[in-house]
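From: lab user (bench 3)
To: helpdesk
Subject: output format question, protein + nicotinamide-adenine-dinucleotide

Hello, I'm new to running complex predictions and I'm not sure whether the block I got back is the full result or only part of it. Here's what I submitted:
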Amino acid sequence: MINHTQINNQQFAAYIDGQWHKAKHTITSLNPADLTDIVGVFGEADKGLVSDAAAAARRAFRTWARTPAPVRAGIVQNFGRLVENNKEALARVVTREIGKPLKEALGSVQEVIDTVNFFVSEGRRLYGQTIPSEMPNKELFTYRRPIGVFGCITACNFPVAVPAWYFIPALVAGNTCVWKPSEDALLTSYWFTELWARAGLPHGVFNTVLGSGPGTGAAFVELIEEGAFDKIGFTGSTAIGRKIGEVCGRALQTPCLELGGKNPMVVCPDADLELAVDGALFSGFGTAGQRCTSLGNLIIHSQIHDAFVEKLVNKAKNMRIGDPFNSDVTYGPLISQRFLHNHLEHLSTLIESKHELPLGKGGHIGHGAEWPHFSGNAKNGVYARPNIVLNVSMADRIYSTETFGPLFNVLKYHEFDEAMAMANNHGYGLSSAIYTNDPRTVYQFKTEITAGMSSINNTTTGAEAHLPFGGNGKSGNGGRQSGIWVLDQFTKWHAINWDLSGKLQLAQMDTHYVEPDLNFKIQS
Ligand code: NAD
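Helpdesk reply: Thanks, we reran it on our side. This is the complete output you should expect:
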């Protein structure tokens, strides 16, 4: 059973071939709600360990790929049962390590279980096709084949759900894996790895390397260039994703890149304004704005702009911020000190004199910036005040910069075409939302929006295990996770033609099509 209070100081750096390995250089995970609470001390995997992990996955591949898919899926089902048995404990580790409110952490563990439930039965499908041939006595088939060694680097904010989106379908499809999780979620990643080990995966099928981006992550990328992996998945910032995409291109691979967002929400004059206020507040401030799908630009019709902003600001002023184990907080601390630093940097570099900040200038709660409804440890926690930025236009840097913190912009539109331009022109294309009750407006929105995901009368956030998840433009390279669509990431199509005629038959050349009588004319 997972013990969420355990301080892991074993300096474990890598899980390879069924064994944990230690490293000299250490990396410490701290509780962002109280930086004096050491969550764990782990090792930093160097290039040698990452290379050993890739080699172990390579050795395990042949046997795993030949294991019948329903048997592979049975082990995934075991993993799901273990996650269910440890749901509360795993969620508590997530909350302690990255500050995500417990209710949300429980939701992300549930996402893992949902993903297992969807893909277990996929082990009994993984359908190929039988296809008619243009020649007699010949059969055509397609099969989904596993790709090989899957290398995956994941982000800090969904440390169990996003890895589950990758590894569950990858393993069911017969691939072996090497995972480099975020350095902000080391204990969570340790337990996630242990759950796979206890599920009964053969040694070498799932391997983990722990460490920082510039250290372990950079070594991982060198190994992509050297051909250690057959498929790469990366979830994280657009800047790092771009670099990984370049390297994958040189290695002749198509990676699955799931990157940042600047997600728009349009509020039309006919919308249910109370509903839209609640939607905007959760989209902007849920998870302290640290979701890839968090609200970036709130686009409000001029007719309702002032009244809407007043409602929004009044409600925001009553938000509770603080201890993520308290059930009434909208958000807890930022994920780590790095994110507080970035947030303060955005406040000092992106806010222009024309912008208005109706919730105040923001800042580090307890360090010169207080919040009236605060329940956390202000002295030791990484807590930030929320920000709403008014008078933003498309020319401003803040309009097209992902801020990944408790901050969103407000823009005013007059014509719907202008709202669509505001919703698309920042260049990201992950999620989007519209509040309206007019079906024609919904139709225009869903036809013209460039995002991969859209909500109608709901938040910019949220995903379900059987709906495609992913973005376009600066948000990714068009790959999709979840549901049946992700199988195209983890399998390659194999086309077979089987000639039973006993003679050489050539497609196109030996095909006997029947000619029509083209002289035939209808007599009128
Ligand atoms: P990040 O890009 O800083 O780090 C992501 C991962 O890359 C981490 O494991 C990190 O250690 C590693 N990394 C960092 N530098 C590296 C390097 N030079 N070489 C190799 N690996 C390196 O992102 P983050 O701060 O962990 O997460 C926040 C970002 O992730 C935001 O932009 C957010 O929008 C995005 N995100 C996207 C999705 C999605 O599905 N589209 C989901 C979650 C988060």
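A quick orientation on your result: The two ends are 85 Å apart (CA to CA). Let us know if anything else is unclear.
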